[in-house]
Amino acid sequence: MAEAPIRAGALPLQSRHSHRVARRVLAGLTMLGALPLPALGAGQGAASAYPLACAYFRRDLDQYAHCARRDGGMVRVAPAHAARMHFERGLAELRVPGVGCLWVRRDGLALPVFILDNGPDPFEQGLVRSWREGKVAFYDRRLRLVLATPYDWAFPFNARGEALVCEGCRSDGRDPASMVGGRWGLIDRTGRPVMPLAETDAADRRYFGRPN
After folding, report:
1. How far is 170 from 152, CA to CA, in rounded Å?
2. Closest alpha carbon to 8 in 167, 202, 199, 179
3. Quick check: 90 and 108 in contact, CB under 8 A?
4. Where are the domains of the chain?
5. pTM of this prediction?
6. Which of 128, 115, 118 is nearest to 157 (CA)?
7. What would the pLDDT profile of 67-115 be if each residue is shown by its tens digit?
8. Measured on CA atoms in the order 182, 116, 74, 51, is the torsion positive or negative?
């Protein structure tokens, strides 16, 4: 081929992000499972109704039992826990072991999203990355589905309204990890291809503004 295929290390999942991202310093986050489970008290509902534990990011690093339950592809947070969370612009951060990082609405509906810098993926251009039926999807701040895609990975939409997407790519398993292999292209906010998928770094160069 005229151009080299995407190589390991070419597209880091966290550090190669050209948009503003708030860095979260969460010492000991990997030890959440070893932390105590403080009791919330009466009124939290039956344990069987909310079997999942959770941790509030901005409040503390403690893990609370009987906090949430799965609700289809979403998660539902117990009302007593939702009332204790810190909301900004209508959303709060949450971590649920076995599910991942989530954004939570005031009514307790929560969306699992990509993990970035040990926290939930930030909203870029009003959209956040999540999954739908095993493929990348984009949701708005009300956690409504805006765009479902057929792609295995995607970077956020940039200021030009373009997202870098791939098909057949995979994580190299390193820390920080990179996406390797597959075919890469660009889509607009409607999902229309701006640059078709190809085994070159042309889409990567355009997305990150690097010269050819």
Report:
1. 8
2. 179
3. no
4. 1-20+150-212, 22-121
5. 0.78
6. 128
7. 999 999 999 999 999 999 999 999 999 999 999 999 999 999 999 999 9
8. positive
